[in-house]
Design brief:
Elements: E1 4-8, E2 11-16, E3 22-24, E4 31-32, E5 45-48, E6 54-55, E7 69-72, E8 79-80, E9 87-90, E10 95-99, E11 104-106, E12 111-112, E13 126-128
Parallel strand pairs: 2-4, 3-5, 4-6, 5-7, 10-12, 11-13
Antiparallel strand pairs: 1-2, 8-9, 9-10
Length: 132
């Protein structure tokens, strides 16, 4: 299967691929919908541009066994990956909304989002004291 990005206007609705490993979301995307990466089972890294201001629920609904790197571009007004934590954090609420096997949860994170409770059980995930 070829890699298929499903984009409507400025909304990324899904990515379908049997073997895509690295995704850089285009700079004009403002919204990433629910379950966008559901068919990217071998995904290793995601780069989210500073244009993205809305991310749907359970965006990483995929086994996170391969996913090692999540980066939110500096200057994003809503989300961050502070201290190279390999996660998506909602800046205003300090809520971790998506993580991966190499996520290091900064001590500034106060909440794990509803769809990230399973991240607690991953052996590579640590909560460490990191200055914001």
């Amino acid at each position: 299967m070829d890699d298929i990005f499903i984009i409507e206007g400025t909304t990324l609705k899904g990515i379908k691929s049997d073997n895509i490993s690295h995704i850089t979301i285009p700079n004009y995307v403002k919204t990433i919908e629910n379950y966008t990466f559901a068919f990217c089972q071998f995904l290793e890294s995601i780069l989210i541009p500073n244009s993205v201001t809305k991310i749907g629920d359970n965006v990483l609904f995929t086994p996170i066994d391969f996913l090692k790197k999540i980066v939110v571009e500096t200057g994003n007004p809503v989300y961050d990956s502070r201290n190279n934590c390999n996660a998506i954090i909602e800046t205003a609420t300090n809520t971790l909304i998506a993580g991966c096997v190499s996520t290091i949860i900064p001590n500034t994170v106060t909440t794990l989002g509803e769809y990230n409770q399973e991240i607690k059980g991953k052996t590579n995930v640590e909560i460490i004291p990191v200055s914001a």
